[in-house]
Amino acid sequence: MARYFDVHPDNPQPRTISQIADSIRSGALIAYPTDSCFALGCQLGSRDGIDRIRSIRQLDDRHHFTLVCQNFAQLGQFVQVDNDVFRAVKASTPGSYTFILPATREVPRKLLHPKKKTVGVRIPDHAVVQALLAELGEPLLSSTLLLPDEKEPLTQGWEIKERLDHVVDAVVDSGDCGTEPTTVIDFSSGEAEIVRRGAGDTSRFE
Protein backbone atom coordinates (compact mmCIF):
# COMPACT_ATOMS: atom_id res chain seq x y z
CA MET A 1 0.00 0.00 0.00
CA ALA A 2 1.38 3.39 -1.05
CA ARG A 3 2.12 6.11 1.51
CA TYR A 4 0.30 9.37 0.87
CA PHE A 5 2.15 12.68 1.35
CA ASP A 6 0.12 15.90 1.36
CA VAL A 7 2.58 18.71 0.57
CA HIS A 8 1.94 22.46 0.53
CA PRO A 9 2.31 23.63 -3.11
CA ASP A 10 4.18 26.87 -2.35
CA ASN A 11 5.89 26.17 0.98
CA PRO A 12 6.69 22.44 1.08
CA GLN A 13 7.08 21.18 4.64
CA PRO A 14 10.80 20.32 5.15
CA ARG A 15 10.04 17.30 7.34
CA THR A 16 7.70 15.82 4.74
CA ILE A 17 10.16 16.49 1.91
CA SER A 18 12.88 14.78 3.96
CA GLN A 19 10.65 11.72 4.46
CA ILE A 20 9.94 11.50 0.73
CA ALA A 21 13.66 11.82 -0.10
CA ASP A 22 14.52 9.09 2.43
CA SER A 23 11.97 6.77 0.87
CA ILE A 24 13.46 7.38 -2.60
CA ARG A 25 16.95 6.63 -1.28
CA SER A 26 15.55 3.40 0.14
CA GLY A 27 14.35 2.32 -3.30
CA ALA A 28 10.81 3.71 -3.39
CA LEU A 29 8.96 4.42 -6.63
CA ILE A 30 6.86 7.58 -6.22
CA ALA A 31 4.13 9.38 -8.13
CA TYR A 32 4.66 13.12 -7.86
CA PRO A 33 3.37 16.40 -9.38
CA THR A 34 5.39 18.63 -11.71
CA ASP A 35 4.83 21.87 -13.61
CA SER A 36 3.35 19.85 -16.48
CA CYS A 37 1.62 16.76 -15.06
CA PHE A 38 2.17 13.89 -12.62
CA ALA A 39 5.24 11.71 -13.12
CA LEU A 40 6.69 8.48 -11.81
CA GLY A 41 10.08 8.88 -10.14
CA CYS A 42 12.81 6.84 -8.48
CA GLN A 43 16.48 7.07 -7.56
CA LEU A 44 18.87 7.50 -10.48
CA GLY A 45 20.57 4.11 -10.17
CA SER A 46 17.53 2.05 -9.17
CA ARG A 47 17.27 -0.91 -11.56
CA ASP A 48 14.11 -2.04 -9.77
CA GLY A 49 12.57 1.43 -10.16
CA ILE A 50 13.34 1.48 -13.89
CA ASP A 51 11.84 -1.98 -14.37
CA ARG A 52 8.72 -1.01 -12.43
CA ILE A 53 8.20 2.17 -14.47
CA ARG A 54 8.58 0.13 -17.68
CA SER A 55 6.04 -2.37 -16.34
CA ILE A 56 3.45 0.23 -15.23
CA ARG A 57 3.68 2.12 -18.52
CA GLN A 58 4.44 -0.90 -20.73
CA LEU A 59 7.50 0.77 -22.25
CA ASP A 60 10.06 -0.76 -24.60
CA ASP A 61 13.82 -0.16 -24.47
CA ARG A 62 13.60 2.76 -26.91
CA HIS A 63 11.75 4.92 -24.41
CA HIS A 64 13.65 8.00 -23.30
CA PHE A 65 13.69 8.26 -19.53
CA THR A 66 14.10 11.76 -18.09
CA LEU A 67 16.54 12.99 -15.48
CA VAL A 68 14.70 15.71 -13.57
CA CYS A 69 17.42 18.12 -12.43
CA GLN A 70 17.46 20.87 -9.84
CA ASN A 71 19.45 23.36 -11.90
CA PHE A 72 21.62 23.82 -14.96
CA ALA A 73 24.85 22.92 -13.16
CA GLN A 74 23.41 19.53 -12.24
CA LEU A 75 22.01 18.99 -15.73
CA GLY A 76 25.46 19.63 -17.21
CA GLN A 77 26.91 16.65 -15.31
CA PHE A 78 24.70 14.19 -17.19
CA VAL A 79 24.44 15.48 -20.78
CA GLN A 80 26.76 16.99 -23.37
CA VAL A 81 25.72 20.53 -24.28
CA ASP A 82 27.51 22.68 -26.89
CA ASN A 83 27.29 26.47 -26.90
CA ASP A 84 24.31 26.85 -29.25
CA VAL A 85 22.28 24.19 -27.48
CA PHE A 86 23.33 25.62 -24.11
CA ARG A 87 21.77 28.98 -24.96
CA ALA A 88 18.53 27.42 -26.23
CA VAL A 89 18.11 25.14 -23.23
CA LYS A 90 19.13 27.81 -20.72
CA ALA A 91 16.53 30.23 -22.15
CA SER A 92 13.78 27.64 -21.65
CA THR A 93 14.52 26.48 -18.11
CA PRO A 94 13.09 26.06 -15.62
CA GLY A 95 9.94 25.13 -17.48
CA SER A 96 7.77 22.45 -19.07
CA TYR A 97 10.36 21.15 -21.52
CA THR A 98 12.28 17.89 -21.80
CA PHE A 99 15.47 17.97 -23.85
CA ILE A 100 17.00 14.87 -25.44
CA LEU A 101 20.78 15.13 -25.48
CA PRO A 102 23.87 12.89 -25.69
CA ALA A 103 24.52 11.41 -22.26
CA THR A 104 27.77 11.59 -20.31
CA ARG A 105 29.32 8.59 -18.55
CA GLU A 106 27.51 9.66 -15.36
CA VAL A 107 24.26 8.22 -16.74
CA PRO A 108 23.64 4.51 -16.05
CA ARG A 109 23.68 2.53 -19.31
CA LYS A 110 20.25 1.06 -18.59
CA LEU A 111 18.74 4.55 -19.00
CA LEU A 112 20.24 5.27 -22.42
CA HIS A 113 18.51 4.98 -25.75
CA PRO A 114 20.10 1.75 -27.09
CA LYS A 115 21.24 3.24 -30.41
CA LYS A 116 21.57 6.97 -29.83
CA LYS A 117 23.10 6.85 -26.31
CA THR A 118 20.88 9.79 -25.38
CA VAL A 119 18.76 10.65 -22.36
CA GLY A 120 16.04 13.18 -21.54
CA VAL A 121 16.73 16.01 -19.08
CA ARG A 122 14.60 18.76 -17.63
CA ILE A 123 14.49 21.43 -14.92
CA PRO A 124 10.96 21.85 -13.55
CA ASP A 125 9.40 25.10 -12.39
CA HIS A 126 7.64 23.58 -9.38
CA ALA A 127 8.32 24.38 -5.72
CA VAL A 128 7.66 20.87 -4.40
CA VAL A 129 9.91 19.16 -6.96
CA GLN A 130 12.64 21.75 -6.46
CA ALA A 131 12.54 21.18 -2.70
CA LEU A 132 12.72 17.43 -3.20
CA LEU A 133 15.64 17.69 -5.65
CA ALA A 134 17.51 19.97 -3.23
CA GLU A 135 17.04 17.42 -0.46
CA LEU A 136 18.07 14.48 -2.67
CA GLY A 137 21.17 16.18 -4.04
CA GLU A 138 20.85 14.33 -7.36
CA PRO A 139 18.40 14.09 -10.27
CA LEU A 140 15.20 12.09 -10.03
CA LEU A 141 14.77 9.44 -12.70
CA SER A 142 11.31 10.07 -14.15
CA SER A 143 8.69 9.27 -16.72
CA THR A 144 5.28 10.86 -17.34
CA LEU A 145 2.49 9.10 -15.44
CA LEU A 146 0.57 8.12 -18.55
CA LEU A 147 -1.01 4.69 -18.27
CA PRO A 148 -1.24 2.32 -21.26
CA ASP A 149 -4.23 2.89 -23.54
CA GLU A 150 -5.08 6.20 -21.84
CA LYS A 151 -4.80 9.47 -23.74
CA GLU A 152 -4.30 11.79 -20.77
CA PRO A 153 -2.16 11.51 -17.63
CA LEU A 154 -3.80 11.11 -14.23
CA THR A 155 -4.17 14.51 -12.54
CA GLN A 156 -5.50 13.88 -9.02
CA GLY A 157 -3.36 12.54 -6.18
CA TRP A 158 -6.25 10.64 -4.58
CA GLU A 159 -7.09 8.92 -7.87
CA ILE A 160 -3.45 7.91 -8.39
CA LYS A 161 -3.39 6.50 -4.85
CA GLU A 162 -6.57 4.58 -5.58
CA ARG A 163 -5.47 3.15 -8.92
CA LEU A 164 -1.76 2.56 -8.33
CA ASP A 165 -1.83 1.73 -4.63
CA HIS A 166 -0.10 -1.63 -5.06
CA VAL A 167 2.43 -0.71 -7.77
CA VAL A 168 3.95 2.52 -6.36
CA ASP A 169 5.35 3.07 -2.87
CA ALA A 170 4.29 6.69 -2.34
CA VAL A 171 2.04 9.38 -3.81
CA VAL A 172 3.00 13.03 -3.37
CA ASP A 173 0.03 15.39 -3.65
CA SER A 174 0.24 19.18 -3.73
CA GLY A 175 -3.14 20.03 -5.21
CA ASP A 176 -4.04 20.76 -8.81
CA CYS A 177 -1.67 19.45 -11.45
CA GLY A 178 -1.74 19.94 -15.20
CA THR A 179 -2.90 17.41 -17.78
CA GLU A 180 -0.35 18.21 -20.48
CA PRO A 181 3.05 16.49 -20.57
CA THR A 182 6.22 18.44 -21.28
CA THR A 183 7.19 19.56 -24.75
CA VAL A 184 10.05 17.30 -25.92
CA ILE A 185 12.88 18.78 -27.98
CA ASP A 186 15.55 16.46 -29.42
CA PHE A 187 18.91 18.22 -29.69
CA SER A 188 20.97 15.06 -30.17
CA SER A 189 21.85 16.00 -33.76
CA GLY A 190 22.73 19.59 -32.80
CA GLU A 191 19.51 20.94 -34.35
CA ALA A 192 16.19 21.28 -32.56
CA GLU A 193 13.63 18.63 -33.50
CA ILE A 194 10.20 18.86 -31.86
CA VAL A 195 9.36 15.30 -30.81
CA ARG A 196 6.25 16.08 -28.76
CA ARG A 197 4.22 19.26 -28.48
CA GLY A 198 3.08 19.71 -24.90
CA ALA A 199 2.94 22.29 -22.14
CA GLY A 200 5.99 24.30 -23.26
CA ASP A 201 5.76 26.86 -26.10
CA THR A 202 7.49 25.47 -29.21
CA SER A 203 7.80 28.73 -31.20
CA ARG A 204 11.44 29.35 -30.26
CA PHE A 205 12.42 25.94 -31.63
CA GLU A 206 10.68 26.26 -35.01
UniProtKB/TrEMBL annotation:
Residues 14-200 form the YrdC-like domain. SUPFAM superfamilies: YrdC/RibB. One of its GO terms (molecular function) is double-stranded RNA binding. Pfam families: Sua5_yciO_yrdC (PF01300). It comes from the Bacteria. InterPro entries: DHBP_synth_RibB-like_a/b_dom (IPR017945), Sua5-like_dom (IPR006070), SUA5_domain (IPR052532). This is Threonylcarbamoyl-AMP synthase. The lineage of its organism: Bacteria, Bacillati, Actinomycetota, Actinomycetes, Kitasatosporales.
